[in-house]
TrEMBL record:
GO terms for molecular function: DNA binding. This is AbrB/MazE/SpoVT family DNA-binding domain-containing protein. Residues 17-58 form the SpoVT-AbrB domain. It comes from Paenisporosarcina cavernae. Pfam families: MazE_antitoxin. Keywords: DNA-binding. The keyword DNA damage does not apply. InterPro entries: SpoVT-AbrB_dom, SpoVT-AbrB_sf. Gene3D superfamilies: 2.10.260.10.
């Protein structure tokens, strides 16, 4: 379930238990927009006093020599735009 405002979209999720940890699922709409992949890390920020937890995609803390952040941003856009074509090429 989601509630939209001008700049944000809110989702309601149930908390589940996996082993000794509590888990919350990420809606597919969000995971697709952020291009989240299994095994990737998210940063969790607890805002005391507001009782909020904010999750955001963890940024790469280092880049290989000669690669800048702008290049990775452009590359990510190209991969998103041509995702289907790239998958078809992979399967050839």
């Amino acid at each position: 379930m989601s509630v939209e405002t001008m700049k944000e979209k809110r989702f309601t999720r149930k908390i589940h238990q996996t082993g000794n940890s509590l888990t919350v699922g990420i809606p597919s709409e969000i995971s697709e927009k952020l291009n989240l992949q299994k095994g990737e890390e998210l940063e969790a920020i607890f805002v005391e006093g507001k009782d909020e937890i904010i999750y955001r995609k963890k940024e790469i803390s280092y880049l290989p020599k000669g690669i800048d952040k702008e290049f990775l941003t452009v590359l990510e856009g190209v991969i998103d735009d041509y995702h289907e074509a790239l998958l078809n090429l992979k399967d050839r």
